[in-house]
Amino acid sequence: MVSDKAKQELREKSTSDQTDFMMDLFKYTDKDQNGYLTLDEVRGLHKRLSEDLEKDDFDQLELTEEDCEDAFRRMDRNGDGKVGLIEFGRFMVPYFV
Ligand SMILES: [Ca+2]
Ligand SMILES: [Ca+2]
């Protein structure tokens, strides 16, 4: 599961609403709930979004499967093939400011 240290770091870098949003998105993406995202899970998020959202909303996202792979590689800073909450948070925070 997500460590307290990771949650702490997120809280310091973002407002509590943003933290909640990121935590929810992280949990939503982390399908097996082991506290790390894999490329398959990020690809799975893409698939689930495309199924959950109205087609028009999804088209507006302009999110392709290649974008997911690209985003995953950028999130996985230490290149171990897993993205923890800290890596995820560091990737997400710039989009909120
Ligand atoms: Ca996982
Ligand atoms: Ca990593």
Automatic annotation (TrEMBL):
Segments forming domain EF-hand: 17-52, 63-97
Record GO terms (molecular function): calcium ion binding
Protein name: EF-hand domain-containing protein
Phylogenetic lineage: Eukaryota, Fungi, Dikarya, Ascomycota, Pezizomycotina
Species assigned in the record: Aspergillus avenaceus
Keywords: Calcium
Annotated PROSITE patterns: EF_HAND_1 (PS00018), EF_HAND_2 (PS50222)
InterPro entries, per database record: EF-hand-dom_pair, EF_Hand_1_Ca_BS, EF_hand_dom
Source organism superkingdom: Eukaryota
Record flagged with keyword ATP-binding: no
Pfam families xref list: EF-hand_7
